């Protein structure tokens, strides 16, 4: 038997994810025990088509052909080890979390309308064969986040090869597993793939060649990559590359087909130099994030280049590097709006920054070694918040003989508005 404490009030965070139309047809229960079978759904659902179960102790899930349910979400299913799925043309979204399932069951292909399948925080381990997804021809989103998968392959069996299905998969989420090597060639059966998520694995290589004309997002955050070579990826639609929190010591290679990046996130790596040749290809790049690397400058030091333009760059993040001078020599950045340079070693900032970058609306800088006279010359920009400075962490500070520096709270900055003569300083001590 099953029992159902039904709660009318749902967590606000969950409600905010649903539209008004969804709420009208959604049933939410906090816990359920016993089999989730035909009798369970008949007595519970009524005219509802969305079911969200926060916790279920059931060991068996049964979906019959006449079950009209559109969406089934079980947030915690710690004992669910059997799926009985009959041919069904209604169920489109299936999410199972915290379950002991160790793989995909063949009866999933009976869910002919299935578009979203997520098996997260389960016990799927070892090698995962992406060919298992080919039988789900309407599937657009697949997630096995937070499992134990160590290897990804594509090995279609004879039956699937004869069917030659055209996969509609758009989002593939393999994050939070233990994958060390990923070959892009395993994606060849998914020509409509739009987003690939490999974050929080143990990746040391991403290699291979592939033609993925629709891929827009690549997420390889929090891995162990020392290099990222995408020159074999014919991915002309790639817009967003997230590769922060790796061990990259060379700038990524994008080849000739990837020329339309908009966001490149390389924060928290080991980059010491830029690759100007790769950057200048990206004329639509609007966000470049290079915080927490080991850069000593952001100048064009390429012997073959004296001036490089990034026409669309709006945000440049250079915080926590080893940069001493923020002259940005050799860069034309006509669209630059935000420049972040929270660098303790920073000593020099050019006075003509706003002249060179007229659209700059904010310079954010923690720079205790910047000359006090520079701050005095640019005090108006600090007061109108174009320059967000912080050159002393707390209290008043004396910087150099004859300077009186005080913290101005509303800008969080130490200003040196005047220089006092030695005689005045002597008199004030008296």
UniProtKB/TrEMBL annotation:
SUPFAM superfamilies, per the entry: L domain-like
Entry keywords, A to Z: Leucine-rich repeat, Repeat, Signal
Signal peptide: 1-17
Protein name, as recorded: Leucine rich immune protein (Coil-less)
